[in-house]
Amino acid sequence: MKDNYKYVSLIYDDFISNLIDYKFWAKYIYQLIKKFSSSKNYVLEIASGNCNLSRYLHKKFTTYVVSDLSLSMLKNCKINTKLKICSDMLQLPFKRKFDIIICSFDSINYILSKRKLSLFFKEIYKTLNDDGLFIFDAALIKNSYHHQKFALKQKKSKKHHNKKREYFYT
Ligand SMILES: C[S@@+](CC[C@H](N)C(=O)[O-])C[C@H]1O[C@@H](n2cnc3c(N)ncnc32)[C@H](O)[C@@H]1O
Question: What spacing in Å lies between the alpha carbon of 63 and ligand 1's midpoint?
Fold first, then answer.
């Protein structure tokens, strides 16, 4: 399994997730679930990363499974759970079906072809209950241009680098 976020996982919270109000988005997603889902027992979050969103959502459901392609991201998962599965969202390995599947923070943008996108939706269809709910977001071109002006950042990270200061540019 390719650990695609191996190095990003070292700086993810410093550089990316600190800019996002996960509590707000968790509340919003939960409102959607309350409105559109009849059963709320089995939830699967794919591309969950290091569980920034899950930490606000997981206690609200009977079973909350987190999954990501990157083992390094899952190792930094912020919730204490055994339900962590390292898997590719294009090949979901689950035998059981879920009431709700969540794929947040533009993770669907990692799917780069129509063929793979079609495969992805087939995997979701296979893994979701008949009356299940799939929640995802996507970064579209217009939105990316809008945020491009904020794309130059410089930050320092002391973590994970044996006290040596590293400078990163994005
Ligand atoms: C922008 S991060 C979002 C992480 C998390 N959802 C959040 O809100 O912080 C994208 C995540 O998608 C994961 N990812 C990328 N391609 C994937 C794939 N094919 N299957 C599963 N996860 C994937 C990455 O490993 C990464 O953790």
Answer: 20
